[in-house]
Amino acid sequence: MCKLLGMLLCVCCWIHIDFFAIANVECSLETKSLLAAQREEKLSDVAHEDEAGDDAAKRARFVARSAQQVMRENAIPGMAVGIVAHGKREMYYYGVASRKTAQAIDAQTLFEIGSVSKVFTGILGGYAQAQGKLSLADTVDRYCSELVGTPLGRVSLMALGTYIAGGLPLHFPATVTTRETMLRYLREWRPAFLPETHRQYSNPSVGLFGYLIAQALGESFESVMENTLFRLLQLEHTCINVPQAALGRYAQGYSKQGKPARSTQGMLTAEAYGVKTVLPDMLRFLEANLDASSLNHEMQQAIRTSQTGIYSVAPMTQGLGWEMYAYPFSIDTVIGQAERLPFAAQKTAAPMSLPADVFLHKTGSTNGFGTYVALVPSKKAGIVILANKNYPTAARIRMAVSLLEHVLEEN
Predict the structure, then answer these.
(1) Active-site hit among 115, 156, 263, 312
(2) Whether the Cβ atoms of residue 287 and residue 299 lie closer than 8 Å to each other
(3) pLDDT at 18
(4) What's domain 75-410's architecture?
(5) Which of 10-19, 213-222, 234-243, 325-334 has the lowest mean pLDDT?
(6) Within its chain, how far is the Cα of 128 from the centroid?
(7) CA–CA distance, 259 with 257 (Å, rounded to integer)
(8) Which residue is catalytic, options 92, 94, 163, 201?
(9) In this structure, are residues 113 and 238 in contact, taking their beta carbons and an 8 Å threshold?
(10) Which of 171-180, 286-295, 341-350 comes out lowest in average pLDDT?
(11) What HEC string does 278-328 produce?
(12) Cβ 198 vs Cβ 162: under 8 Å
C-alpha cells in the first residue's frame, strides 16, 4: 500500500513538474516572439530614421556642391541657402561675411536683398488697401498734392507699383538728392508711353508707390515697415536701417569687381531696395507667401493682392513685386526675361489666366549683394539664396531652380 501511494505521488509530481515546464516553455516562446517583434519594430524605425538621415545628408551634399560651384565660379565670399518644403525648413551656410575678418556666415548674418524689397513694398500696398486707407486704383494726386495737374498725378497707385506709369527711368538722375528736387523732377517728367501700355522697370516708380502708401498710413516708410509690416510677418531681425547693435552682423558686400560695397541711401531707395534681413526671417517670409492662414485677415488679403496678376508681358505675368509664370516653365525663358526686362520697355497685355501651378520669383541686387527668391505655392515649396556679392542673375536662377526641382522630386 505504501509503495502504491509512493508511486502515485511520483506520477502526480512528474505531471505537475511537466505541466509547469510546458507552461514555462510556452511562456518563454511567447516572450521571445514578442521581443523579436519589438526588435524588428525598432530595427524598422532605425532603418527609417537612417533612410531619412541619408536623404537629408544627400540633400545637404547636393546643396553644398551647387552652392560651392556658384561661389567658386563667381568669387562669392559667402552664401546662405534656405529651402521650405511641406512645412519643413532647411538652412545652409557657406563662406564668410567679410574677407577682412573671416567671420563665418550664419543664421544671424544680415544681407541686403535689393529689389526683393519690392515684394515687401507691394504687400504693404495690399495691407493699406485691406485696412481701407486707400484703393490701389486711386490716382497719385490724391496722396501727393504737389503732383495735381501733372501727367504722373493722373496715374494710378497700382500703375506705379507695377512699372506701367508711362516710362519712369530705372534710377533718378544724379541731381535728385532731396524731397524738393525729387518733386520738381516728377512734376516736370513727361511719359514716353500712355500709362498702362508699356512696362518699364523703374526704382523711382516703386519707390514713389511705397512713399505714398506710407503717407496714406500716416507714417514714414521706414517706420511703417519696421514697426508694422515686419512685426505682422513675425520677422524679428529684418530692418530698413541697421541698428547699431546689429552692425557686427551686417555682412560686407562685394561688387562685381570684388571691391567692398554696400548700398547707399538716396531718394526712395528704402522703398525700392532697402530691406536687410537674415535667412531664417526670409524663410518665414516665404512660408507666409506659401500659406498666409496663420496671419491676420488684413495680411492674408495683402499677400493675395501681391500675388494677383495685373498684366502680362508674355509669358510673364506681373504682380505687386512678384513675377509669375505657369509651372512648369522654360528656365531659359525665365532667365532671358529676368535679364532683359529691367532694361527694355515691353508692351503690356491683359493678365494671362494662370493655372493652379504657378511659379513666383524675384531677383534682387545692390552694389555688393545678390539675392533670389522663388516659390511654387501649389507644391508648398520655396527657396531663397542670399549672397554678399553682386553676381549674374542667370547663375542664381539656375542654381535655385535646380535645388527646388531636386527637393520636389524627393517629395
Answers:
(1) 115
(2) no
(3) 39
(4) 3-Layer(aba) Sandwich (3.40)
(5) 10-19
(6) 22
(7) 6
(8) 201
(9) no
(10) 341-350
(11) CHHHHHHHHHHHHCCCCCCHHHHHHHHHHCCCCEEECCEEECCCCEEEECC
(12) no
Residue 299 has pLDDT above 60, yes or no: yes
Report d(CA 65, CA 127) in Å as an integer.
Answer: 40
Least confident of 51-55, 134-138, 297-301, 324-328: 51-55
Separation of CA 189 from chain center: 35
What is the mean predicted confidence (pLDDT) over 226-237? 98
Cα distances from 255 to residues 386, 390, 397, in angstroms, run: 14, 6, 19
The residue ranges of DSSP E strands in 198-288, in sequence order, are: 198-199, 276-277
Q: Do 397 and 334 meet the contact criterion of CB atoms below 8 Å apart?
A: yes
Q: How far from the centroid of its chain's Cα atoms is residue 150's Cα?
A: 37
Cell of 130: 485691406
Domain ranges of the chain: 75-410
End-to-end CA distance of the chain: 84
Does a cis peptide bond (omega within 30 degrees of 0) precede residue 169? no
Rounded Cα distance, 181 and 163, in Å: 21
Three cell numbers at 304? 493675395
The mean predicted confidence, pLDDT, of the chain is 89
Q: What is the pLDDT of residue 342?
A: 78
Q: Are 326 and 315 in contact (CB under 8 A)?
A: yes
> Does position 276 have pLDDT exceeding 70, yes or no?
yes
Q: Is the pLDDT of residue 383 over 70?
A: yes
Q: Which residue has the cell 508681358?
A: 313
Q: Which amino acid is at 91?
A: M
The kind and range of the H/E element at 88 are strand 88-95
Contacts 24+ apart (CB under 8 A), 392-396: 392/74, 393/335, 393/338, 393/339, 393/363, 393/365, 394/335, 394/338, 394/339, 395/70, 395/73, 395/74, 396/70, 396/363, 396/370, 396/371, 396/372
Give 297's Cβ-side CA count (13 Å radius): 3
For residue 105, give the nearest of 276, 279, 237 by alpha carbon.
279
201 is an active site residue = yes
Query: Can you give the length of the chain in residues?
Result: 411
28 contacts: CB under 8 Å, gap ≥ 6? none
Q: Which amino acid is at 398?
A: R
